Structures
1.
Amino acid sequence: MTIIDGKALSEKIKSEIAQEVEKIKKGGGKIPHLAAVLVGDNPASKVYVRNKTRSCEKVGFKSTLVRKGAGVTEQELIETVHALNNDDDIDGFIVQLPLPKHINEEKITLAIDPKKDVDGFHPVNFGRMALGLPCYLPATPFGIVTMLERYGIETSGKHAVIVGRSNIVGTPMSILLSRKAKVGNCTVTITHSRTQGLSGILRQADIIVAAIGIPNFIKKDMVQKGAVVIDVGINRVEDASRKRGYRLVGDVDYEAVAPLCSYITPVPGGVGPMTVTSLLLNTLKASRKEVYGS
Ligand code: GUN
């Protein structure tokens, strides 16, 4: 059994990005610049955004944090997005989700210029992904594909079972793994809360991608020997023994499932660190105008 070390891999990729930034600097080019919009005080969102801006600093990118109060109006937020769309120094930006209930997330996502949509959430990028055209891949699926590629895990002809059909993980993973590509060519089954006989389906999986947000949901009797298990869950469970009062667990019952697997991602330290690194890779692509040209 091999533990896929997302933390170490993300550090390696970050050092590769830092070298690219050094080259850009030496050549007198423009330093990649990522902006993040954070609305309100959601503690998890604050942590995620801090990780993103810190990672930018680490690789030598410029980063800008735009903070808005929880009471910001939808119109004000759309104006913020338009200002970022029109700011030539900013190569890409993200609006951290979730947004307060009075703001329509879809409207905000649609207001982002697809050329700067380094989250890959805009329908133009999603559609281009589905068609196999150059695009910004959403960070989590991009991170997973990168892990599979860098660990040399064969996907061609394998049965991948995805648990969860969200727009940002389950659905894009189903598209990417079935695509005719280096990491792809899987036979994909996408499962969700209404799926009947989930355990039986999972037992036929060569690759499992768990993205449902239920702690320890995938048990050992649902996994066949030799499976590759990718755990996307980041669930907080109460833990009085920890200073902060909780610990993070995945969607997979790790202790019981890991011994069965050929490869497994831990939580924390698996998929999570790779998502931020993917965002940096997308920002580098944006600054090089690799996806959409000038
Ligand atoms: N909230 C949870 N994950 C993400 C993400 O990848 N991007 C943004 N913008 N918000 C999120």
Note: Residues 94-97, 119, 139 surround guanine (CB under 6 Å).
2.
Amino acid sequence: MAQTFDTIKTYPGASNEEIRKAMEGAVAVVRSNLPEFTDKFESSNSVNGFYEPTDNVEWTTGFWTGVIWLAYEFTGDEAFKKAASIQVESFLERIEKKNDVNHHDMGFLFSLSCVAAYKLTGNEHAKKAAILAADHLAERFREKGQFLQAWGDPGEPKEYRLIIDCLLNLPILYWASEVTGDPSYADKAKRHIQTAMKCLVRPDNSTYHTHFFDVNTGEPTYGVTHQGNRNGSAWARGQAWGVYGVALSYRYLKNPEYIDLFCRVTDYFVEHLPDDLVPYWDFDFDTGSTEPRDSSASAIAVCGILEMCKYLPKEKADKYLEAADKMLKALIDRCANTDTSVSNGLLLHGTYARDSKENTCKNRGVDECNTWGDYFYMEALTRRMKDWNPYW
Ligand code: GLY
């Protein structure tokens, strides 16, 4: 164990002034990116510090639109609203034409772009796109096993599994039930999280990245990693998806079991942080390792803590809030970029994927910015400044 909640107390926290300055620095970078990234999106990760423009493909384009919406909320500047609204039309086209959507990542894509647009501006195209995305995600629910299948054609035996990341795709289902009055979306989300947390959380509170099911009986079979270091290790971003995913389901369902689950996965995350509080890409690695960091994992976990602490008893909330504050300060001090000649991203030192003997990845976006790291960093700053109404 690298940290305890007591050792974390000894680190500096971020002042309100530092938070505001960090947000201003981030928004300045976002503003300078708008001309290049309004009709196009930022690619998933930077290369040598810089994102390339891409069409609306992969699972990640919603993060950039979400970043623009956060900049709009912070500044009230119509230029941001205009750019994000242009991108909403691209998301409507994407879901109507079913472009690159044969996977579960409808929440990552459509909550931060279209649910955000609908909540902030009442955009009806955005509402339509987000409901179509929720319909599409709901079709991936497998009765045999009671889960949303992550990848591949629904029912395909080789891909009959869920992954921990999917917890962030559930809020669009809860939201769709709220706006349509049809409880079936939320019901699927509820059944998915019950299955997922039963399979994924290990007795030591670390988590599996993915878990397979028997296609004929629906019985859970075995857990493996896809992006972590080992099948038995805790991939840092996966653990963070667990922290935030449980918090978001608690927000909608208020199931008291999720409080304990949240504390377990969050304790593991916080107690395995290295000395400088920026996690390595997998919790197999600790202080002194030469392996790369994944700053995005910390940004995600901070957002999860800030969400869940709204519902925890004060003493418990204070303990987690203090840790989140120190983690955010470490991100500001060690990872924030405000120099557009160094990078057009916001949060340095992320890792998209790192190859290892047991995983199936190739190195990608190692020690680079990634769009979700940028997004969750800005969300965390926003949450620290005000009682924020989530896009989730
Ligand atoms: N959801 C995919 C990832 O975290 O890389």
Note: The longest strand covers residues 220-224.
